[in-house]
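Work Package 4 report. The design task specified in the project plan requires that, given a folded chain encoded as structure tokens, an amino acid be chosen for each position. We show below one input record used in the internal validation round.
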């Protein structure tokens, strides 16, 4: 009776408390629309609104990505107070589940509402992150742009760049004339990234440079300083075109020996590239400076009609060799016609016109060669395919007559190395495989002339002979007598000074590596010494590999039994080195290393890995380095397939007679 009498009063009191609580939440809620971001590492993710209350924090996020790609928010996503680093974990999504893959619609944009635990009351700015690192820094909760970092290039960077450009050995473009073409010298690229921040997560890039004359990799590291300025030193042998690769963004350049090229980049292009995932993405804000400015601007303003390389696998199975060749040559001609229309409307230098035509010729010639490459493999996979069984007539290769193979300017293009490789392994050239020697080199010359009639053998032919000298020099098992026969053939085939100079250099390098050499006093060398220090006193096989690299993993898995048989041998050990970029999955790294008996498995930073690439001059992986008990490099391009032979011959006192 007593409770019933006062029930209306009690209910009114409870209702007033609930109403007050709701009002309190409303009063304490904070909404920030389009908050400023101090620094972002991606353009895929945009914070459109932050709703903050004592109970939770809601982030409205727009994803801008390639249509058809997927995106997911994992349990590892969190917000953190930018000052105290106190974390607020992601609890749920308004629609969908954590870890669920969402397909990006045709518009390229989609919006999500993410529910996080409540933020600390004192938080003024947030970071958005996941287990791979911070993605957005300094998301303002004050709805103010005062925290936004300026993208202006400092006066100090400008003065530094001017000083570096002034130090250039050559302040005039020499061009691609044959008289001044072959010149071995250093060249530099200096520049800056407008809007760069050390929080970008990288401080170096790479130029995957090649000496196409000898098929040797000569990579160069791009050092990026905290203020966004960068510098790279390259060893080049003639004018060259190539790409800088910084954080997956490729920036093309033309460079000459002894010269310095200035390049200004913009962080916005890096962000746009991260959103597109397009290898052909062209940075929109790149600016070139110096004496090579005009040729770079002219070269990279045109985009050729490229071969249908994406359909090549299908063409091998569905188009006969002659039908494919006719189709490819028609596309080749169409690409050249399109270029001539472009050139007719513009006043470009003769050098640029030559290089643009060469680029088309080289890419299409390689494409026609590539149709043949791998046919044997595919015919074994598809034994009923009649097209794959059709023989390739030698007349198929007469398309090489469309190119002047005596033209030295072909060497300028970065793709010419691959074209030489395709010719070397084709029937038009009699390649002297490892263990064989052509005593009568006239046989090789005659075969080449049957496809490419020429009274005087062209430069490209002499380069293929030189590349054989370079290849033979890498084999420890090749004795001096055989090596000298290769060099004699290369030298007597031509009187070109550059061939003689390269043969002399290769011979000297071969001798140096046979005796072993000490690492230089550089930061990269010091890093390597530190990595191998725990194994001092042992002969080491250092294996550079990556998670994505199929040949690397094949080599690791196929050598498992050998490594296990040597596990108790006190004279040898194996060290495996990968990096955070090439092997991003830590769980995979740990389980794969354990499963494949990789006892000494190291995972270093991407910047450190690039530095070691430059130190040991390798573009591709796997790469094996042989180190002796004193830490001297006995072979920086060790052939793991010759492991038993090489160990027995190099270190007979330790391994002779040993079975493994």
């Amino acid at each position: 009776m007593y409770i019933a009498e006062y029930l209306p009063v009690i209910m009114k009191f409870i209702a007033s408390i609930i109403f007050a609580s709701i009002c309190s939440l409303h009063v304490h809620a904070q909404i920030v629309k389009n908050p400023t971001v101090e620094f972002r590492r991606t353009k895929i993710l945009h914070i459109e609104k932050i709703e903050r209350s004592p109970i939770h924090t809601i982030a409205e996020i727009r994803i801008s990505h390639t249509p058809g790609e997927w995106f997911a928010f994992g349990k590892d996503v969190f917000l953190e107070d930018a000052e105290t680093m106190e974390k607020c974990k992601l609890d749920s999504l308004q629609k969908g589940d954590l870890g669920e893959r969402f397909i990006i619609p045709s518009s390229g944009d989609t919006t999500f509402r993410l529910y996080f635990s409540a933020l600390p009351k004192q938080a003024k700015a947030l970071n958005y992150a996941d287990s791979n690192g911070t993605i957005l820094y300094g998301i303002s909760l004050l709805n103010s742009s005062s925290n936004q970092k300026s993208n202006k290039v400092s006066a100090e960077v400008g003065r530094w760049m001017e000083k570096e450009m002034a130090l250039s050995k050559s302040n005039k473009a020499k061009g691609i004339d044959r008289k001044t073409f072959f010149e071995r010298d250093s060249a530099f690229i200096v520049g800056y990234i407008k809007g760069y921040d050390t929080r970008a997560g990288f401080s170096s890039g790479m130029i995957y440079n090649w000496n196409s004359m000898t098929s040797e990799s000569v990579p160069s590291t791009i050092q990026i300083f905290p203020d966004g300025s960068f510098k790279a030193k390259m060893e080049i042998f003639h004018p060259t075109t190539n790409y800088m690769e910084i954080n997956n963004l490729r920036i093309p350049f033309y460079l000459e020996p002894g010269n310095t090229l200035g390049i200004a980049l913009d962080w916005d292009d890096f962000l746009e590239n991260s959103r597109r995932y397009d290898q052909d993405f062209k940075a929109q804000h790149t600016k070139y400076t110096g004496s090579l400015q005009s040729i770079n601007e002219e070269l990279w303003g045109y985009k050729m009609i490229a071969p249908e390389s994406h359909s090549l696998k299908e063409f091998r199975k569905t188009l006969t060799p002659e039908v494919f060749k006719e189709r490819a040559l028609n596309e080749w001609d169409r690409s050249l016609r399109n270029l001539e229309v472009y050139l007719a409307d513009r006043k470009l230098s003769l050098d640029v016109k030559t290089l643009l035509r060469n680029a088309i010729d080289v890419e299409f010639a390689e494409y026609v060669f590539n149709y043949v490459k791998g046919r044997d493999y595919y015919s074994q996979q598809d034994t009923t395919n009649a097209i794959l069984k059709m023989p390739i007539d030698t007349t198929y290769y007469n398309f090489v007559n469309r190119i002047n193979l005596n033209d030295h300017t072909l060497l300028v293009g970065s793709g010419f190395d691959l074209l030489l490789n395709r010719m070397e392994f084709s029937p038009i050239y009699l390649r002297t495989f490892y263990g064989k020697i052509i005593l009568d080199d006239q046989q090789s010359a005659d075969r080449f002339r049957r496809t490419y009639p020429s009274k005087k053998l062209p430069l490209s032919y002499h380069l293929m002979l030189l590349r054989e000298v370079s290849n033979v020099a890498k084999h420890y098992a090749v004795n001096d007598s055989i090596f000298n026969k290769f060099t004699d053939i290369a030298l007597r085939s031509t009187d070109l000074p550059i061939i003689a100079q390269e043969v002399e250099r290769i011979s000297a390098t071969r001798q140096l590596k046979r005796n072993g050499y000490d690492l230089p006093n550089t930061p990269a060398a010091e890093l390597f010494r530190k990595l191998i220090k725990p194994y001092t006193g042992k002969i080491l096989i250092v294996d550079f590999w990556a998670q994505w690299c199929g040949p690397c993993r094949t080599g690791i898995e196929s050598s498992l039994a050998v490594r296990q048989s040597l596990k108790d041998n006190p004279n040898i050990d194996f060290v495996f080195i990968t990096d955070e970029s090439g092997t991003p999955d830590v769980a995979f790294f740990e389980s794969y290393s354990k499963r494949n008996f990789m006892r000494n498995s190291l995972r270093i930073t991407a910047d450190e890995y690039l530095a070691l690439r430059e130190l040991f001059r390798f573009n591709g992986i796997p790469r094996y380095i042989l180190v002796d008990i004193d830490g001297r490099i006995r072979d920086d391009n060790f052939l793991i397939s010759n492991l038993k032979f090489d160990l027995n011959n190099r270190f007979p006192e330790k391994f002779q007679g040993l079975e493994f």
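The longest strand covers residues 185-194. Validation will be extended to a larger panel in the next phase.
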